[in-house]
Design a protein that fits this description.
- By secondary structure, this protein is mainly alpha-helical.
- Among the domains are: 62 residues, no CATH class; 34 residues, no CATH class.
- The strands form two sheets. A two-stranded antiparallel sheet has the order 1-2.
- Helix 1 runs antiparallel to helix 2.
- The longest helix is centred in the first third of the chain and has 20 residues.
- The chain is elongated and about 95 Å long.
Length: 160
Amino acid sequence: MNFQVPQFIDIEDRIIGPLTLKQFGYLAIAFLLSFFSFFIFTFLIWVLITLLVAAISILFAFIRYNERPFSILFLSVVSFAFHKKKYRKNISGEEEGKKEIPQSHLGDLTLALETSTAPMKNERSFLKPFLDSLREEKDRYEILKKITGEKEVARRIDYR
């Protein structure tokens, strides 16, 4: 059974002549702003506003950057400019006038837990009770070693 697979799904439909609906909307907004500014401002100011609005609308309607519309790029730049940014700095090469960032005990503990393979001293391992219960129930469970060296726990089934 053959099915038709949709192709070119990232290309917008041309609705108004050679323009997509978004392109037509950007150009229509520019035209309306220019039209109403003609009646409000003097001729020289109207020409400047029209040139500025036309340039911006052409950017938004036709320019693509990295195969993405300019409107997406503009929104990304605005969100980057106004959102908080998180910076990290190596404290070992500290500059003058900068305060040292205190590291909490919790951060050190997290780093030790994430980077170590053995349980830490005076810390209770969450695997120990599980492994102890496995040793007690050897007749029900078995620890298998795979070819790769990885260990796996399997339930033992006897077909006698």
